[in-house]
Amino acid sequence: MRFGVVVSEWNTEITEALFEGARNTFLKFGTAEADIIRRDVPGSFELTLGAQLLAETEQFDAIICIGVVIQGETKHFDFICEAVGQGITNLNIKYNLPVIFGVLTPNTMQQALDRAGGVHGNKGDEAAITAIKMAALKRELEN
Ligand code: RBF
Questions:
Q1: Which of 11, 52, 75, 95 is deepest in the core (most CB within 10 A)?
Q2: Residue 41 alpha carbon, nearest atom of ligand 1
Q3: With 90 as the cut, is the pLDDT of residue 40 above it?
Q4: Residue bearing the CA closest to ligand 1, atom 20
Q5: Which residues have CB under 6 Å of ligand 1?
Q6: DSSP-derived secondary structure for the chain
Q7: Beta-strand pair 121-122/116-118
Q8: pTM score > 0.70 for this model?
Q9: C-alpha pair distances (Å), 125 with each of 21, 22, 64, 113
């Protein structure tokens, strides 16, 4: 399988940890390094277009979007989360392709750290597992 990963450059300490979690999980389940294609975008708001540009290439079994929007730190929280949530949902349907919502929406930076390799695990791992499961489901039902 071949996976696209779109990574937001906001809160890179967190998004890099989430990406590493996703990458390690893909490798652990047998994906070749060359079949993990990463592209970065400036912020979570841009994840939708980043994923759409990858989807348009028709080269991927699934795409993961990785970002972090911290509620306490921006009034933009609701706008960004609403936009990217809706945007990613639309891509799933438009391309009939798993596009995974790997966006953390915590109240604090500590909660983000806890979910990026901390006490609550690494949500990047979970995003990769979701991508693999959904890609397998798509293959099973389409073949
Ligand atoms: N992008 C994020 O991924 N996480 C954030 O917490 C975040 N906070 C923002 C706060 C403000 C006030 C603004 C203007 C942008 C923020 N962005 C954030 C960037 C946003 O996703 C996008 O890159 C920019 O709005 C440009 O479209």
A1: 11
A2: 23
A3: yes
A4: 43
A5: 8, 10, 42-46, 67-70, 74, 76, 80
A6: --EEEEEESTTHHHHHHHHHHHHHHHHHTT--GGGEEEEEESSGGGHHHHHHHHHHTT--SEEEEEEE--GGG-TTHHHHHHHHHHHHHHHHHHHTS-EEEEEE--SSHHHHHHTEEETTEEHHHHHHHHHHHHHHHHHHHH-
A7: antiparallel
A8: yes
A9: 5, 5, 11, 14
Residue minimizing CA distance to atom 13 of ligand 1: 76
Cα dihedral value 75, 80, 81, 86, nearest 10: 150
Lowest mean pLDDT among 1-5, 55-59, 72-76, 121-125: 72-76
Contact (Cβ atoms closer than 8 angstroms) between residue 100 and residue 130: yes
| Tokens representing residue 73 in the block | 């730190």
